[in-house]
Amino acid sequence: MMQWEIVIGLEVHAQLSTNSKIFSGASTAFGAEPNTQADAVSLALPGVLPVLNRQAVECAIRFGLAVGAKVAPKSVFERKNYFYPDLPKGYQISQFELPVVQGGTITVQVGAGDKAYEKTINLTRAHLEEDAGKSLHEDFHGKSGIDLNRAGTPLLEIVSEPDMRSSDEAVAYARALHTLVRWIGICDGNMQEGSFRCDANVSVRPKGQAAFGTRREIKNLNSFRFLKEAIDYEVRWQINEIEEGREIHQATVLFDPDSGETRMMRSKEDAHDYRYFPDPDLLPLVISPQWLDAVRATLPELPQAKRARFVAELGLPDYDAGQLTASRETADFFAATLAAAPGQAKVCANWLLGEVSAQLNRDGLDLAQCPITPQQLGGILRRIGDGSISNAGAKEVFRAMWAEGGEADAIIEAKGLKQVSDAGAIEKIVDEILAANPAQVAEYRGGKDKVFGFFVGLAMKASKGKANPAQLNEVLKRRLAG
Amino acid sequence: MIEKSLRQLGQALAAREISSVELTSLFLDRIARLNPEINAFITVDREQSLAQARAADARLAASAAGPLTGIPIAQKDIFCAQGWTTTCASKMLANFVSPYDATVIAKLHQEAGMVSLGKTNMDEFAMGSSNETSYFGPVKNPWDRTRVPGGSSGGSAAAVAARLAPVATGTDTGGSIRQPAALCNLTGLKPTYGVVSRYGMIAFASSLDQGGPMAPSAEDCALLLNAMSGFDARDSTSLERPVEDYARDLEKPLAGLRIGLPREFFGAGCDPAVMAAVQAAIGEYEKLGAVSVEVSLPNSHLSVPAYYVIAPAEASSNLSRFDGVRYGYRAPDYDSLDDMYMKTRAQGFGAEVKRRILIGAYVLSHGYYDAYYLQAQRIRRLIAADFVEAFKSCDLIMGPTSPSTAFKLGERAADPVQMYLSDIYTIAVNLAGLPAMSIPCGFADGLPVGLQLIGDYFAEARLLNAAHRFQQATDWHRRQPADIA
Q: DSSP character for B176?
């Protein structure tokens, strides 16, 4: 049986979070009534001209810097010519020969547990372009409606090298990219609204063969699940075709989530000749070193760097650091919690990734909607740290806080959860227990360690669960040692 | 009153010798009388014109007027004007009423307070040199109504020549201001690329198009350019420069002015009678103290072929928006989307427009792009470099504007290449982005001859100075066609 290698490259369209369109002042807000955000430029009225939105350029620069790419000092907007009703000018303004971002890399973690590995995906380029409008085929009785609200919305098309070798790698890359564009604040990442769309170029080749197989492009995948399903189906289909003696022909295909299959949209023969040429209405985009520096100064610490720092400076396990840097919100929440409970990095991580995350899941909330602030959470963790409450007590405080709000200390007080950490009080309890159970004391001293748990149980019961466990252990051991 | 210059009209309005409404009515009446034959206007809208005139009179009464407030002007129908049908002389836009003003329109009307007399005829989408490609029929040259006025700004030229308007706007992509100015005995100025905003000016070839004034005199052109020009944030190719008074140097003496005469403009290919008038004009300049020097533009013979690659390439893309989807003409019957596109564009565009779209799509297509489009861009740079070299030894370049006087209607309509050669002296200027003028310099067989003056970048004031001094010393520009009373 032939061994096949899968080759995947992704093209991702990230809608940039600008207030206005890439070449006009019209709003980019999602969900407005059709054509209410179509100004003269969006409508391509005769005589109108494009003016480049600097905010969109800054988004591209941020991305270029974040992936260590070359931000081109001079790049060129070109016209991609084709006719379609939702393309009002009859051409799309895009970048072709000289894109604004050239090269760059993104390092991703693939898989989990023992099989987890790290891989660096190379980027070919990222370029600025405008989105098209939408054709609406329902409700028009045999006609089509055109909504040009989206026409002219700025996009960054991010093109990877064909570096991925499995659908898992493709999804890991897409997720890392999704995290990054939100992290640096250039895209809201909303996949339902189409703010982040993937096209996957997929081919297979016999293991060991240097030349790539013929690729087919799966268009417009708007969830990570569909991305994986579509690639997996496409790979099986291609291998089957080849094994049954048929050739793969270059084509563009669509994924149907209902059937789980890809189907042909157009073949290479139907491909347009886009007649690209530099747009004479726009000057070349010149980015000065000063502009680059100014944008660099506003970049946040990037996820990879933050992850490494969490490991090196805070001593967190790499897994925790990875989870905490999976999104900007998580990292920021963690940092704020840690600031409220200094020196308790691991405890903060455990609580955020454990209790908080589980509770959010149960309630169907995301972190931005979390009813507990990092400061409140830090308040609980501080009391664990100084021994005022036990872990069990902390969980009770947490549940109360989640449901009713309030500060940790007030809840501890109200619920009487404060641990007994008074050394004298604990010694007194321990002495009474030992005195009342001489047989067990003898057993322990005779080498039967298991009896230790028996004493802990009695002491906890005697303190009504409030004895500080660490302190209790210490006193017990000392007294039993004799 | 119809003989007066802009400055004189401004004074008459300021002195209340005449109101803007009266002046506007005077020209509207002339249009009503003479336009049916000359066909210089596509759209006349008396009510809108008079409303603008009343607003101008109010500004004059409130002493809130500028030097051009209340003076009528004819607008080439390539400029979008809010509330006015804006057709670009095409069936495609025959019913298009613009919802917005071009920057030039806003500057001339809202800011300067001029009054629009209407929208002038032109070659369809400015593609042509005779005004014969207009969907609204050809314009007749007021000097000889069996002849063309030139193009593409033929309607503007004929309107001013017949005194249906004191002045007009034009646009010049390969000679479309200068050639009709030459053929109709007018002064026309194509500014440096980027001096006049292109926003709202329906694009033919974006990297070449430039609006400018057409008028009886250089002084009028200077005053009109003052009002039309200036940086516009809505046009990315607009140039951000300090505001200039283009009339500031009009009276400067010409002593010592070095006039470059390109060898290539004085060889074969030009009507000898045209050449004789041009030579005489250069003699006149020498009398005014200028000295002529020979220069060379060795790549100028490549300008027409390069232009007919670049301009159609840009046009093929610029005109893609006319697809029948959102506005303008849509074919009445079709059975699919592709059918709608094909029929709409087949029926909506005229033959010359279709020819240029085909040429443009061809030179941009895969496999031909390098051989045609990129090669033409290289020639374009060579042509621009020729001018840079030439301006090292001269201040202005002069020569004929057009190789012939106005030709007969229909004479060249069947021969596109012959028609394209009408612009053999003007096209290089657009490719280089330079400013240039055409001024009246004599007659051949009773038809006007134009002298072309080409300046270095931003030398508009110097061009206008040279033109004005010539017009102080000659009266060619004052001559008018016989039967326009």
A: T
Strand partners, A106: A121
pTM of the model: 0.91
Residue whose structure tokens are 């400013």: B435
CA angle B282, B283, B287 (to 5 degrees): 115
- Touching B: A residues 437-456, CB under 8 Å: none
Tokens 């103290």 sit on residue: B289
Asked if B236 and A280 come within 8 Å (Cβ–Cβ), the reply is: no
Size of interface A-B (CB pairs under 8 A): 96
Strands B291-295 and B258-262, how do they pair? parallel
Please report, as a single letter, which amino acid is at residue A264.
Answer: M
Look up B76 and say whether it is catalytic: yes
List residues bridging with A149 in a β-sheet. Answer: none
**Segment B326-345, tens digit of pLDDT:** 999 999 999 999 999 999 99
Rounded to whole angstroms, the Cα distance separating A332 from A337 reads 9
* Residue B438 near residue B188, CB atoms below 8 Å: yes
ipTM of the complex: 0.96
Which residue's structure tokens are 């997929």?
Answer: A202
> How far is it, in rounded angstroms, from Cα A443 to Cα A432?
17
Instruction: Based on the residue annotation, tell me whether B152 is a catalytic residue of this protein.
Output: yes
Query: What are the mean pLDDT values of chain A's consecutive 10-residue runs (482 residues total)?
Result: 92 97 94 93 98 98 98 98 96 98 95 87 98 86 89 98 98 96 96 95 96 96 96 97 95 94 85 93 98 97 93 93 92 96 94 95 93 95 87 90 93 83 81 88 86 87 80 85 74
> Mutation test of the interface with chain A: which of B125, B201, B323, B378, choosing the one with the most A Cβ atoms within 10 A?
B323
Active site residue: B152, B217, B303, B422, which one?
Answer: B152
Chain position carrying tokens 């669960």? A465
In Å, how far from its chain's centre is CA B139?
Answer: 15
